[in-house]
Amino acid sequence: MQLVLASKNPHKLEELQSIFSSLGVQVISQAQAGVDVDVEESGTTFEENALLKAQAVMRSSGLPAVADDSGLCVNALNGGPGVYSARYGGEGLDDAGRCRLLLENLRGALDRRGKFVSCICCCFPDGGRIEARGECLGSIAYAPKGEGGFGYDPVFFLPSLKKTFAQLTPEEKNAVSHRGAALREFVEKLRAKLDG
Q1: Boundaries of every domain in the chain
Q2: Phi, psi of 14 (to 5 degrees)
Q3: Secondary structure of residue 14 in the 3-state scheme
């Protein structure tokens, strides 16, 4: 079985390919499927945005499409940046710039709790759909640490491991991350669909 990833993020493609390979499911990029779709993420929830992306790529490719919408929700920022995590601070900022902005906006905040959320949606040409959600609780570090990962990984601290996401190996991160949790739930639902 082949799934098209409804994202142009090479990091997400890598993560999904490693997790789905054990199922015998091949995850390919939009480019490999011959589609170039930019979907406006107009949803107000991670679930809505994942559905919008999966539907658009499935319609364009004619293949099952899987999308992940994820982000960082920080208590002291009333759940922000949330669905705007990738666009936090505007177009001109890169990952490092968004991390700096987040730390600036949390200066003096005593409550540094937050969570990463991942919602996965797969749309099938027959109208079927599989959805899953995962969360990872942690806190926001006072400074970036670690070289791995992407996005907010250098500032997302896991008290239980005493490390940021960026300090974990990819295997350690997949075992505890929001996307790992969502994908494990998704894989169970996909396995049931494939066996059914």
Answers
A1: 2-195
A2: -60, -50
A3: helix
For residue 14, name the pLDDT band (cuts at 50, 70, 90). confident
68 has which bridge partners? 120
In whole angstroms, what is the distance from residue 99 CA to residue 55 CA?
Answer: 31
Active site residue 69: yes
- How far is the C-alpha of 173 from the C-alpha of 164, rounded, in Å? 10
Q: What is the pLDDT of residue 195?
A: 82
- Condensed to tens digits (0 to 9), the pLDDT of residues 1-10 reads 899 999 988 8
Q: Taking the alpha carbons of 22, 67, 133, 150 in that order, is the dihedral positive or negative?
A: positive
- Are 194 and 1 contacting, i.e. CB atoms less than 8 angstroms apart? yes
Second-level CATH architecture of 2-195: Alpha-Beta Complex (3.90)
Residues in Cβ contact with 71 at an 8 Å cutoff, skipping those fewer than 6 apart? 46, 81, 82, 83, 84, 85, 86, 116, 117
Distance CA 49, CA 47 (A): 6
Alpha carbon of residue 93 to chain centroid: 19
Q: Rounded to whole angstroms, how far apart are CA atoms 121 and 67? A: 5
Options 69, 94, 95, 195, the catalytic residue: 69
144, 154 Cβ separation under 8 angstroms: yes
Report the predicted TM-score, pTM, of the whole model to 2 decimal places: 0.91
CB under 8 Å to 68, separation ≥6 — which residues? Answer: 7, 12, 16, 50, 118, 119, 120, 179, 182
